[in-house]
Amino acid sequence: MSTSTDRPEPEATPLALSRDGRPVSDRGDTVCVIGAGPSGLTAVKNLKEHGFGVDCYERETGVGGAWNWRHDRSPVYASTHLISSRPFTQFPDFPMPDSWPDYPHHSQLLGYFERYADHFDLRSHIWFGTEVIRVEPVEGDRWDVTTRSTGGYGPERTSRYAAVVVANGHNWSPKLPRYEGLAEFRGEVMHASSYKDPAQLRGKRVLVVGAGNTGCDIAVEAAQQASRCWHSTRRGYWYAPKYVLGRPADQVNDALLALRVPLRVRQWLYHWTLRLTVGDLTRFGLPAPDHRVYETHPIANSQLVYHVGHGTIMPVPDVARFGPYGVELTDGRHIDPELVVFATGYLPRFEFLDPKVLGDDSGTGRPTLWLNAFAVGHPTLAVVGLLQPDSGVFTLAHWQSVLFARLLDARRTRPERAAAFAAATTARAGERYSGQVKDSSRHWFEVGHADYLRAVQRALDSLEGK
């Protein structure tokens, strides 16, 4: 495995100077990719195929990003499986084995990314154990990228690049709620990012807060391992089974999308299917959803309703406040958990970039991008993988990076089309690629994969003059 300490320094032209007088190694037309997770890997691969030199910086010691459970920032736990099925998750030019299950385990995913990196000879472009601490735009749409060894050891080093791909992921910085009295609570409190194994739940009275896919998974494991499990949600959700009509649910949904079945008809079919299978979930004590299906990211879990129906998961409303030895709920009930798990999601963080570069003028952490990838006024910068699709994300990240590679190529060979692309970025930044969705941080990056891929195809056609 290559590391930043056992390979030669990248070749560069003589030193330039940064704005504050620091020496800068000019990397010419080379592109910098930040992160060697799935999105970073496909960016490196597609930039290489389009003839660009690439330097990729990865803060950890291996590829895989969030799917590498050895990494400090990985949210993966022992039982993690895909929630999108294999054909709708794999890279389009590197299929997963047909012998794999419909929903592969995280260890299989990591092996898949390692083989992808080896097959396309990507490791020789990756500087492992190297973190990016600063990315600054400079004249001529170029970028100064400052790096150092992970953990802050060793000197900083600044290199100048023709373009930058940000692929640092958005599921690693925990979003923690604030509750009255939480600081005085004497039980154990943890975020789901720290959850790794059911042994952490065994024999305890557990309260799981949050109804995302991770929260539901942890609640199901608590139902089997804990002495008692409460599952707290602020609102009602639609719980999608992983299989419908004998097929993975996302494959059935995609068939309807391919037939251009209108949203309202798909919503009716979904409700009809639920009525035939699990019926009215409010009879179990689950709150009624306050939105129509497909207006939030789907909760893909076939076991939650089973355990609620068997009484091993107790649905409860939101937390009102904490006391030293218990929790008061918004309906006035009191419960006494020993362990509280906040499965309350993550917030995007681009700590090496000025937020305004990505159009975050409000300071909320939410970028304003076209196609969830391209920033206004910065045509040589792209964010890859900042998506929450109704299917797998890797296919979408692949096409994002293909689009960026062709944009960079157009800047050299078809500048008028690249200029039109930049104008479209300005006009369409913040455009949505899904139906009506809830306005919460959890749904900031929600896209319908079919609509999104059509939009990417239109952008590719515009660069080709079609």
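Next protein, fold it too.
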Amino acid sequence: MSKRPALALLAFSSLITSLDFTIIYVALPDIARDVGFSAHSTQWVVSAYAIFFGGLLLLGGRSADLLGRRRMFVLGMALFGAASLLGGFATSTTALIAARAIQGIGAAVLFPATLSLVNTMFEEGRQRIRALAVWAGAGAGGVSLGALLGGVLTSAFGWQAVFLVNVPLVIAGTVAAFLVLRADGPRDRGRFDVPGAITGTAGTTLLVFTVAQGPETGWTSAPVLIGGVSAVVLLAAFLVVEARSAGPLMPLRLARKLGPVLAVIFVFGGTMQNVVYFLTLFVQNVWRYSALVTGLVFLSLSVVIATANFVAERLMVRIGIRTTLISGLLLGAVGSALLAAGMVADGSYWTILAGILVYGAGMGTVFPTVFAAAGTGVAEQEQGSAGGLANTALQVGTGVGLAVLVGIANAGSAGLDGEALRIATADGLRTTVVVSAALTLLGLLAAVALPGRAKADDTTVAEPVAAA
């Protein structure tokens, strides 16, 4: 049986979860205006998704290993679709944030099942790298394609459409799962680490909450202090639970093995992954681009990312995973710096085009490479856990990084309005992207600590996957 239809479906699911992280970026001003979010609290429409996505990924990965990957794939699709329906009809801030949180839970079930299916369906080496290039290409492309699609849908149908568009997509994906994915056989139903899931998720949530609220309410305010202390206690308890558990969500042995990769992914999530958010705010709030034009700005970014994904596949084979990853991080840092240079109040698309091209090349290179690194040398029965660890690092890094960078972006705009506010917004967003570029370089310190990996075997020729 050809593996191409299955790979196409797995790439499609990666596209959905990644796309939904950014599809609402362009719609955020309309959402804030209609639903009633403040300038600072708007980030929770994004962070609620990232927090629950990141907090439950370990449980989702373990569930895929124990209960079956196709079962978890279908369950994740169903949760994602139901939450999207709720978000499309939300009329209050509470309902909308709840919908985004449930979307994050669905994605936490779906994403590690998808990644472990890719890693177990294709043999390690060139065959898996090719499959990961297709899967990661869809995921990385979804980050920028989401902004494009969000602009088109918001302009044509209103912000509700960015939620409701998911409903037919998940129905199609669920039906296809029963047609092209192999049924789960008998499973070794080990014990779930429920205490680990509770302490890990609660600790992560409170950590991001603390970092997000600090700039707004003050770092010495009671909610921030209580949240910070509670986060440290819960995360410490999580490590103790994992060390003693017979079936841990995060096997410490596996976490130590993947430590350098997880550090790179965390930095990537907190920096490069968040640049699209601030670039979207800039072109709308400073240059006053419409939702549709804003979406079209990201078309070139989507094309560059897709191209770089397939170049990364060949680089991993020829020069190795570590060197490819270092190259991608350097491109991301330089591209972000070029973007910042072009983000001026009297600029235009042409002043940021060079940054878009270089930054996109970095995004498209790093995304498939980190997941190839995370799955290399991991036993089949632990692929779900490895995928959960990798994606937890990505989502937690994204949530924490977004909270920190939002505080920097909003630092000088309090009490301003009119043209003064527009200039201050431009300065704050530009500074934020400069900081992101500098912090991206921290990933190099972890990347050079990766073991030198042998190149993929060129003789292991994969089944053609171009159609996917």
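About the second fold: Residues 119 and 405 are 34 Å apart (CA to CA).
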